[in-house]
Amino acid sequence: MHHVRTRPESWRLTPMHRMASCKARGYRPMVSYLERKPAAALAWAVKTFWHLEGHLMGEAAAIPKPYVELVISLGDGHVWSAGGQGTVFRHGWITPIQTGPRFSRSLGETCFVAARLHPEAATWLLGPLPVGDGQPPILAEAVFGAAFHSLRDRLGEAQDAAMRIGLLEAWLADRLPHPVVCAGQVLPNEPWRAGQLGAALGLSDRDTRRHFAEAIGCSPKYWLRLHRLSAVLQAPGFQRASQTLAETAAAFGFADQAHMAREFRLLAGMPPSSYQRRREAEGLTSAPTMAPR
User: Fold this and answer.
1) Where does 183-281 sit in CATH, by number?
2) 25-29: long-range contacts (C-beta < 8 A, 24 or more apart)?
3) Domain 2-179 is classified in which CATH homologous superfamily?
4) pLDDT (tens digit per residue) in 250-264
5) What whole-number percentage of the chain has pLDDT above 70?
6) Mean of pLDDT values over 68-72
């Protein structure tokens, strides 16, 4: 369990007053972030549950990851975009695997309860999903209907993050099938090659490509690229800048630092050094796949 709290519990102003107070006093963004692994019975389907609450001023970049996100918003809504005109989301959304970063701007108070799903499990639950190419995320209420609104009401009545995650976990457990083998459970070690992934799944190269096209929505090579980016973002040495970028590149199988920087820029929309500087400047110590824009 990863729990980072940087917002005093006693600071309970309304969203608009909070923003004005933040700017007037020069405070940094204040975020409470909780991340929890699923129970063993759901580990095949869910990578992690997470809960984010607080107020992120300005715009933030959500860096693409090799998972599908089911997000329920209990706050004041967000404007999401792929760099152009944004779309307002107030209740919840489903974000498929992305081809680049998305950018969000809070309309007030932020409160997210979310599940990070392995793509095969998302396909079982939601049907085939397109790869996100700049289009708005999928409205969760359009997929789940009245069941989603009932869940959101129950989450809003829960007293804390742990209770909300527990409710979401039970809700998903009732809707997901018995465990199946997912690519995420047999992820190969570096150098992150698609051939290794096919061998671990017991599939030929052709069948591996077909499986990924049908169950995940992208190529094995692209999915592995996202996994390596995700691993870099989660690495303590990279997060704390306690090791050089050259050391990080070597640790994760890149040819050199320049190779990692090109890959990071293509997928995350910024070089790794900019990611580190922005997070340090904003005091953002949690939510490793998010960076101020």
Assistant:
1) 1.10.10.60
2) 28/282, 28/283, 28/284, 29/54, 29/55, 29/56, 29/57, 29/282, 29/283, 29/284, 29/292
3) Jelly Rolls (2.60.120.10)
4) 999 899 999 999 999
5) 87
6) 96
